[in-house]
Design the sequence.
């Protein structure tokens, strides 16, 4: 499928239209008389909160669906299912290593605490 994309420095930074995130911004507040009646309505102005980066251009490119369900530019480098699984496996191994280190550290702290308690019990018998 052909879609519009936003390109900056030869790199696609957005697939689809750019979201400028236009929001109403208060320019001047409402004015009231002594009885609380509005004498002048509040004035709002629409402002672009997320302007397209300077130098970015809109082009049309062939888009396809990636293995993870996202959209990518056709023929762009994309990880294979095996690569995605390898990345997940590496993440899980790192998580396991961190948990093992934490358990080892907690075990050492427990041993030190037990020794301190034994020393305190020994001091009480004197």
Sequence:
């Amino acid at each position: 499928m052909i879609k519009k994309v936003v390109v900056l420095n030869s790199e696609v930074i957005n697939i689809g239209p750019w979201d400028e995130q236009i929001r109403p911004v208060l320019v001047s507040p409402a004015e009231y008389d002594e009885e609380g009646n509005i004498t002048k309505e509040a004035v709002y102005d629409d402002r672009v909160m997320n302007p397209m980066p300077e130098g970015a251009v809109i082009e049309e490119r062939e888009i396809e669906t990636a293995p993870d369900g996202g959209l990518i530019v056709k023929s762009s480098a994309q990880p294979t299912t095996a690569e995605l699984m390898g990345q997940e496996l590496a993440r899980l191994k790192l998580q396991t290593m961190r948990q093992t280190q934490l358990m080892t550290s907690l075990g050492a702290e427990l041993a030190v605490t037990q020794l301190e308690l034994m020393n305190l019990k020994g001091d009480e018998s004197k």
About this structure: The beta strands are 2-8, 11-15, 22-28, 31-32, 38-40, 43-48, 57-65, 71-73.
